[in-house]
Amino acid sequence: MQPARDLFSYRKYWASRFGTAPFLPMSREEMEVLGWDSCDVILVTGDAYVDHPSFGMAIVGRMLEAQGFRVGLIAQPDWRSAQDFARLGLPNLFFGVTAGNMDSMVNRYTSDKRVRSDDAYTPGGVGGKRPDRSVIVYSQRVREAFAEVPVVIGGIEASLRRIAHFDYWSEKIRRSILLDAKADLLVYGNAERQIVEIAHRLGAGESIHDLTDLRGTAFARRSTPVDWIEIDSTTIDTPGPLNPPVDPYTMEGAKDTRPVSESPASPAVATASSCATPAEGSVKVVKFYRQVPTAARDRSVIRMPSFESVRADAVLYAHASRILHLESNPGNARALVQRHGDIDVWLNPPPIPLTMKEMDAVYELPYSRVPHPSYGTAKIPAYEMIRFSISIQRGCFGGCTFCSITEHEGRIIQNRSEDSIIREMEVIRDSTPGFTGVISDLGGPTANMYRLACKSTEIESACRRPSCVFPGICPNLNTDHSPLIKLYRRARALPGIKKVLIGSGVRYDLAVESPEYVKELVQHHVGGYLKIAPEAIGEGPLAKMMKPGVGTYYRFKELFDKYSKEAGKEQYLIPYFIAAHPGTTDEDMLELALWLKKNGFRTDQVQAFLPSPMATATAMYYSGKNPLRKVTATSETVTIPRGLKVRRLHKAFLRWHDANNWPILRDALKQMGRADLIGPGKHQLIPAWQPAGTGGVPEGTRRPAKTRDGKTTPARTQHTGLKGVRLPPIGHRKPARP
Questions:
Q1: What is the pTM of this model?
Q2: What is the 3-state secondary structure of 421-439?
Q3: I need a labelling partner for 424 at 20 to 30 A (CA). Which of 159, 463, 691, 695 fits?
Q4: Are 581 and 283 in contact (CB under 8 A)?
């Protein structure tokens, strides 16, 4: 993997003379105070503006400001007209558009497609302040306001929709969001590298249409350039994650009919007759009989099945998903191209991960660490949750099929230095309003992947496995937790810091590799409850999730209980589970319900699987195929819990203790031939009797609550985001919701 240019090595843009703004301006009046006549870049976001490094637009804005650009911000604009999008005027370089920290559809709808009543990224938690498919709507309004301005889209909503994708909310395959948004360029992942390069090159006079060589970007073009080698994705036979690694460029099963004198040294390609605009079935295709010459790999592009093909054939959709995930390592990924009608959507390889030096600099930019003053005293729930937390790393090599972290941030862990993290703690201690001495989290996508990486950079650059920890921990993975232990000890020794909690989820299959880490965590950084995510206990669903078996959970629990007892602390594990995940049968959920009862767990709120765009589990959900292995018409099929009735049943199994769920569970147990589990015995799941006033309330809703005057308030939709609490001993205070 070639090193990328340092983020802070660019010559600053001329506007750096204006200095640093206390907040990125959101109005013309603020621009005038700063002495600006215009903005170089205007960012549009679906979130409220919080100048904190946990909010993506704050990072992007401050990053561009550090490069010398004048950056304005339009937060949660009124999308019903173009007027609000023109309030800062025409930017000199481009508009950057994002839905915010969350996908707008996930933000607004539950996994059962009910509208949420609130939005954690809005002042006062008010819902409805952003449109569905925000990136598309915002981009179209920008075009209405300024027809010729370059538009760059990014953030998780754009990132996960960069190719043709299954859309759960409309139950159909949608085109790449690049085309629907009519944007000039899409940046995916944590896009500091791309955004900085785009700004400097546009500032130097280049056209947005000439920026086709940037890693981590997608754009539209009519045809493949003549000097590129095009590969048909169906000729690639890369192994699934359970197989031993082989050369991904070796074409197994291909018959080499050439003379021996022609084979080893020559490129051995099928000559293309034309480089004109390709049509499906007649594209320029190159088949590699043995291996692509190293010099040619950087000029190779993989042609995936077209939008029309994956829309018509679920097997091709699963195949395309598999290819996309196999080509996700920055060290060996090739460009991808997918036809949409008469236009190609071209995806360049992922960006090179940030170095530790760059990560430090990004997180130590001059954030004010508070919401914009225009919000007054209104509280923004997402900010209240993270204002005393610190990100210590990015990325995740877990590869959980239902999760979008790897698709967005990548599987290579990007770390901050210990000194940088301590400096941020000092800033929080000395300047953040309301700080009481408690750091709420030192974490990231996971709590304990800090400084973990492949033992060999060469192996890391060549690897195509989607997970470093499934089906077991890779022998090439360094699992040494000592840098994290050292960080924890230094953090809690900092003057003015009373407590350092760990709020991010702990990857317990990694934690058991370091009992010393578990001891450090349990005895010093758990506030009574620790959340972990088994997700399931049955081997069927766990294999489709790429999660460890329940035996690993038991090993972690043993260590957790041991070290809690040694410290004289009464502490509990909070397990998270997912209902209705691909590969899950009714019998799997029954087994889980019995396990929950046996172990004394009563889940509070439950999460049903939500098929997010681009996730591997979503490809399973749509196609019924397993893209963890080679996909064909006759390859492995996956059990898919479909329909509201089945999803409610699976959620009801998770909340077996809720009397409102007993009627549906009784019916299901009888149909499954397990009526023996209905009754008062300890070995039985639910009783045969029904308490008065219960039953018949759909899962996912709350009963109307009575007010003092006897009236009822409307029932509210529960949030997804499973929270299970182990029952404390009788007399123990009721735990607060984590």
A1: 0.87
A2: HHHHHHHHHHHCCCCCCEE
A3: 159
A4: no
Contact status, residue 663 vs residue 690, Cβ threshold 8 Å: yes
602 and 723 Cβ atoms separated by less than 8 Å: no
pLDDT in tens, 79-110: 999 999 999 999 999 999 999 999 999 999 99
Structure tokens at 109: 């709808």
Amino acid identity of residue 77, one-letter, is: P
C-alpha 280/C-alpha 693 separation (Å) is 60
- Helical ranges in 630-694 per DSSP H: 643-654, 662-671
Q: Which of 124, 156, 149 is nearest to 46 (CA)?
A: 156
Helix (H) or strand (E) holding 179: helix 177-180
Please give the C-alpha separations between residue 452 and each of 242, 478, 519, in angstroms, as whole numbers.
22, 6, 19
Listed in sequence order, the residues at least 6 apart from 222 whose beta carbon sits closer than 8 Å to its beta carbon are: 277, 342, 343, 344
**Helical axes 662-671 vs 643-654, angle rounded to 10°:** 110
**DSSP H or E run through 173:** strand 172-174
Q: If you write DSSP's letter for every residue of 580-593 in order, what string do you get?
A: S-TT--HHHHHHHH
DSSP per residue, 227-271: TPEEEEGGG--PPPTTSPP--TT--TT----S-GGGTTTS---PP
* Total residue count of the chain as it appears in this document: 738
Task: Please give the average per-residue pLDDT across 44-66, as a whole number.
Answer: 98
Ordered domains of the chain (ranges, CATH): 14-219 (3.40.50.280), 229-347 (no CATH)
Residue 630 near residue 622, CB atoms below 8 Å: no
